[in-house]
Fold this sequence. Notes:
It is a single chain. The chain is mostly beta strands. It has strands at residues 11-18, 21-30, 36-39. It has a domain at 5-39. The protein starts with 10 loop residues before the first strand and ends in a 19-residue tail after the last strand. Residues 5, 8, 10-11, 30, 32, 38, 42, 44-45, 47-48 line the site of iron/sulfur cluster (SF4).
Amino acid sequence: MEPICKNCKHFRAHYVKTGRSYNQISDGHCVYPMLKIRKAATKACEHFRERKPAQAAR
Ligand code: SF4
């Protein structure tokens, strides 16, 4: 799995509302060890923990 924020269990994706649905965008934030803005494609840091398949980016 590619070591980028999108694939880390600490990443939370952001969404935009389009009509009646929500679409995931490339922006998001990290919740560990403190809150910070990150892009899905940002290179992973030393706190990277691989997201398990059931933990799809939300
Ligand atoms: S900044 Fe580090 S801990 Fe946060 S989502 Fe990216 S790889 Fe994971």
